[in-house]
Each structure stands twice: as structure tokens, then as C-alpha cells.
């Protein structure tokens, strides 16, 4: 067993990531926002940590006593710091509420178990006393995935998995490693590097998200073209439920009935708590090259992406920004406000052995050149790599400046993608006052791709209601145009209605039946995922 060399740092309670990286927008960008979108400074300052309003803890004293007996007094926390830091996730509505000092959704206690058996006992206890349990990894959900519906429950606890942060085994013959769920992605990569290995999973939440969270939300990383989605990496799972233990995965592939791993992957803690994961690993790359290409239009760039996805070879990273995102330069947040040339920026990245990287670069370059792409060298790609995790910090800065800014994503087949792209943009423009709407293709497949949108608008007098109105319209547009309601953010609470439309009445019945069998008292993340 191997553990991280250092403890994971907590995220900023009212924003993203490291508080030291938060910064105000320069005056030039504020002027651009004012002139372009009518953004003005907020009328009141954001609440300080000490101004957050918390409800009185509702957990009965006997439950608190038994929780302490199960995991130890020091691992049951009811202090304001712990409760505030486990309130909601990191969506724009989540942050707007926290910035307003609204801590109404705070858990009554934060519990940090240290083993699978402790979690089993804890779930039995909470089922007995009707206490809702919200599994908590990195806290990076952006779809309302960490807010329990209290209903008739006697209380709510956040089940923080931070103590389950070990690499349990590394099998270099089978290229499989077994991890505990609370290990953050950078910690996992540090330990794997000692074995000359990597997972290759680098989503925008990489710095703070956990491996268990990746599985529970069906995460997809920025290098998915080369390494695959996270659910592609999962070969085995151990899960604690109120009914007992589930263990899946004893061979690479199997014809022994339906693959029940798929029931847990994407289940967002509603069916059980992942306590161990067996994951496919790769040899750490010897060579990395990131490059930029320019296309005349978003449509032309998508044609090139489709050809690469269908004919190969694939780069490790393949992304394409539309005209607006390319012009604004969202791929380089530190330089926001410096308008780029017209056209669309494509990022191609290659990781692997030197020979493999050289071969794929040459083949991809030949195809992109044939299809109208103009090579822009390595500088755009290196700049993207340097700032690949910076966008959430920019979102915080824009919120502080008085802008409503949020991201949303979907996916569809190649033939449906133009209509899906237009429908989402139209929905945003119809519901927000003259917004700036940007988009990029972030993940590609032989049959289709994902679309990732960023929207910026001036905040009105009720920015929460403003965004909720827009979000409902976008969800409806995605359903009507045949896209999926989420490619990699998950369902949470924000997408439940649209998810029900996507899977149909019978699909909803199946989900509810699984929930009823594994969690008969409904204590696991109530209100999340299940329509």
C-alpha cells in the first residue's frame, strides 16, 4: 500500500481551488465587459466566511454518539469550518449562494470513515435512524450533486472519503492498479509516477477531484482521445450499500450477463459508496507535444475532427474552439481581453513514446493540412497546456466583477451536432440579455462529439433566477434536438427532469427499482440523479 506524501489542501469555500490563485480582473477586462455586455460592479460585497448563515445541526444526540463510536471522535466534525466547506459543490448557483452567505444546505455533520467496514456500519446506522448520507470526494460537482433533499430525514451527513486515500496495489503485468476512492488525481499520479505509470485522466477538475468522484460521475478528461473516458478505465469496483457489499470485475471482459459495474458508474452516490477501484493504467509518456491549428470556420474544423476520429490516428488531445471562443481567447485565461485572429483554434496534443508521437503528429498534420488547416506551431498548444486548469478561477473573477458566467455541456452524433450547437446558443440568447456565448468541441468519437459551452452575461437583480431560467431553456433545447443532457458533468439535481425525458418512463422505473433494492430507506444522496 502507498499513501500520498502530503495531505490534500481544501478548496476555497466560496469559489474554486486555491485561494492564493484568486485574482481580480484587470481594468481593461472590466471595461471590455462593461462595453460589450453591460456588466457593472455588484451592489454589495460577497459575504465573508464568518457571515455564512448555518442552520442548527439537526442530528439527534444518540446518532452523534454512535457515529463517534464507529469512526472516532476526531473524525466526526460539526464545526462551522467543516460544515461550510461541505456545503454544495462548485456550480455558479452554488457559488452565488455561498457568496450571499447562504449556508442553508450545510450538512449537520461531516464524517470521515477510515475503511470499507466502517462505511458499511455507518450506512446501517443511518438507515436505522433515517439520516441522509451525501458521499463527498473533492466537492467539485457543478450539477447540484452534493445537496440532499432533507424531506423526512432526521438529519444529513457529508460522508467525506478523504481518509481513504491509498494506492492498494499495482500490477504491472496486467497494467491494473487498485485505489481507494478519496485519493485526489494529482496524488494518484504522483504515486503512479514512482512506477513509471499514469492514468492519463486530466479533466478541468483534476487538481481537486477524487478517483471515486470520477467514477461516480462518469468523468471524461481533456486527454480522452488518447486515454479514453474514466469509465473506460474502470475494471473493478467495491461498493458499500445499506444492504451490504457489492464487488464487480474479475476479468477484462465477460459474457456473464449484464455488466453491473455500469449500474454504479455514473450513479453519483445514489446507489452506494465506492470504496475501492481497480483501474487500467498506462506507461508514463516519454514525449509530449502540444500544437495549434487554425481553421476558417467551426464547421470546417469539425469536418477535420470527424475525419481524424473515424480514420485515425487520434491525437491524445483534440479540441476545437468556435469563432467566438477563439477570438476571445478563452484557451488562455491569463490573456483574456487580447483579441485573437479570426478563425477557429484547434489544439492537438500527442503523448507517448518518441516514435509513436512522431508517427501520429506526421499523419495528423497531413490530414489537417489537406482539409484546410493552417499550422500555428507549438506555442498555442503549450499555452493551452499551461492554463488548462485555469478557467474555473476566471469564472470566480467574472462573478466577483458582476457577470453571470457558467458552463454547460452535451454530446451528439456528428450529423446532429450543427443543430444541437445552434439550439443551445439560441436558448441562451433568448433567455439572457445579449450574452456572450462560446463553445468548443472537447471530446471526439467515431460517431460523434461533445459540445462544451461557456456563457457570460451581465447579472440582473436576481442572478440565481436569471441562470435557472436560462438553464431550463437549454435543457429543453438539448432534449428536443436529440443530445444527451450530460456528456461528463453528470445529472445531479440540475438535470433530473431532462434525464427523465432522455431515458423515458420505463427507464425511470428501472432506476427507481435499483434504488429501492440497494437503498430501501432512500438515505443515499436523496434528490440526486433519480427522477
From TrEMBL:
Keyword Flavoprotein: yes
MF annotations from Gene Ontology: alkylglycerone-phosphate synthase activity; FAD binding
Cofactor: FAD
Keywords of this entry: FAD, Flavoprotein
Domain of life (superkingdom): Bacteria
Site (Important for enzyme activity): 319
PROSITE patterns assigned to the protein according to its UniProt record, in alphabetical order: FAD_PCMH
Residues at the catalytic site: 452
Domain FAD-binding PCMH-type: 103-284
Annotated transmembrane regions: none
Residues annotated as binding FAD: 135-141, 268-274
InterPro entries: Alkyl-DHAP_Synthase (IPR025650), FAD-bd_oxidored_4_C (IPR004113), FAD-bd_PCMH (IPR016166), FAD-bd_PCMH-like_sf (IPR036318), FAD-bd_PCMH_sub2 (IPR016169), FAD-linked_Oxase-like_C (IPR016164), Oxid_FAD_bind_N (IPR006094), Vanillyl_alc_oxidase_C-sub2 (IPR016171)
Biological process terms in GO annotation: lipid biosynthetic process
Protein residues bound to substrate: 395
Pfam families, per the entry: FAD-oxidase_C, FAD_binding_4
UniProt xrefs under Gene3D superfamilies: 3.30.300.330, 3.30.465.10, 3.30.70.3450, Vanillyl-alcohol Oxidase, Chain A, domain 4
Family per similarity comment: Belongs to the FAD-binding oxidoreductase/transferase type 4 family.
Record protein name field: Alkyldihydroxyacetonephosphate synthase
Protein species of origin: Acrocarpospora corrugata
Amino acid at each position: 500500500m502507498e499513501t500520498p506524501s502530503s495531505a490534500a489542501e481544501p478548496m476555497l469555500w466560496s469559489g474554486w481551488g486555491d485561494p492564493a490563485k484568486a485574482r481580480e480582473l484587470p481594468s481593461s477586462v472590466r471595461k471590455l465587459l462593461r462595453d460589450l455586455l453591460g456588466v457593472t460592479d455588484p451592489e454589495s460585497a460577497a459575504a465573508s466566511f464568518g457571515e455564512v448563515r448555518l442552520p442548527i445541526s439537526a442530528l439527534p444526540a444518540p446518532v452523534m454518539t454512535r457515529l463517534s463510536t464507529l469512526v472516532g471522535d476526531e473524525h466526526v466534525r460539526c464545526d462551522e469550518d467543516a460544515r461550510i466547506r461541505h456545503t454544495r459543490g462548485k456550480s455558479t448557483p452554488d457559488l452565488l449562494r455561498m457568496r450571499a452567505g447562504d449556508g442553508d444546505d450545510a450538512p449537520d455533520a461531516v464524517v470521515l470513515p477510515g475503511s470499507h467496514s466502517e462505511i458499511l456500519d455507518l450506512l446501517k446506522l443511518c438507515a436505522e435512524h433515517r439520516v441522509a448520507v451525501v458521499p463527498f470526494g473533492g466537492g467539485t460537482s457543478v450539477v447540484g450533486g452534493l445537496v440532499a433533499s432533507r424531506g423526512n430525514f432526521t438529519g444529513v451527513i457529508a460522508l467525506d472519503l478523504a481518509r481513504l486515500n491509498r494506492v492498494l496495489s499495482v500490477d504491472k503485468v496486467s497494467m491494473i492498479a487498485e485505489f481507494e476512492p478519496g485519493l485526489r488525481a494529482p496524488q494518484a499520479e504522483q504515486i503512479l509516477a514512482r512506477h513509471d505509470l499514469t492514468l492519463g485522466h486530466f479533466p478541468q477538475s483534476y487538481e481537486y477531484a477524487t478517483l471515486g468522484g470520477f467514477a461516480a460521475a462518469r468523468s471524461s478528461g481533456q486527454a480522452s482521445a488518447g486515454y479514453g473516458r474514466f469509465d473506460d478505465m474502470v475494471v473493478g469496483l467495491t461498493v458499500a450499500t445499506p444492504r451490504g457489499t457489492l464487488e464487480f470485475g474479475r476479468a477484462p471482459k465477460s459474457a456473464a450477463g449484464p455488466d453491473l459495474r455500469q449500474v454504479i458508474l455514473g450513479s453519483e452516490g445514489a446507489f452506494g459508496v465506492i470504496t475501492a477501484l481497480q483501474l487500467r493504467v498506462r506507461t508514463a509518456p516519454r514525449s509530449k507535444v502540444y500544437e495549434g491549428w487554425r481553421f476558417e470556420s467551426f464547421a470546417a474544423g469539425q469536418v477535420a475532427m470527424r475525419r481524424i476520429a473515424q480514420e485515425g490516428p487520434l491525437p491524445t488531445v483534440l479540441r476545437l474552439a468556435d469563432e467566438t471562443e477563439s477570438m476571445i481567447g478563452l484557451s488562455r485565461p491569463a490573456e483574456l481581453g487580447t483579441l485573437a485572429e479570426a478563425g477557429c483554434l484547434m489544439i492537438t496534443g500527442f503523448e507517448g513514446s518518441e516514435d509513436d508521437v512522431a508517427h501520429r503528429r506526421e499523419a495528423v498534420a497531413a490530414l489537417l493540412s489537406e482539409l484546410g488547416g493552417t499550422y500555428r506551431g507549438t506555442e498555442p498548444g503549450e499555452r493551452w497546456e499551461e492554463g488548462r486548469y485555469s478557467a474555473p478561477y476566471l469564472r470566480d473573477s467574472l462573478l466577483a466583477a458582476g457577470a453571470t458566467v457558467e458552463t454547460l455541456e452535451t454530446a451528439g452524433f456528428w450529423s446532429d451536432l450543427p443543430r444541437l450547437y445552434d439550439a443551445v446558443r439560441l436558448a441562451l440568447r433568448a433567455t439572457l440579455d445579449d450574452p456572450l456565448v462560446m463553445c468548443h468541441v472537447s471530446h471526439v468519437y467515431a460517431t460523434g462529439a461533445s459540445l462544451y459551452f461557456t456563457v457570460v452575461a451581465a447579472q440582473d437583480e436576481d442572478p440565481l433566477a436569471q441562470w435557472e431560467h436560462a438553464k431550463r431553456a437549454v435543457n429543453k433545447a438539448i432534449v428536443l434536438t436529440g443530445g444527451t443532457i450530460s456528456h461528463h458533468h453528470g445529472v445531479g439535481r440540475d438535470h433530473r427532469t431532462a434525464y427523465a425525458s432522455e431515458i423515458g418512463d420505463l427507464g425511470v422505473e428501472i432506476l427507481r427499482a435499483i434504488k429501492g433494492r440497494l437503498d430501501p430507506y432512500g438515505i443515499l444522496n436523496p434528490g440526486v440523479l433519480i427522477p
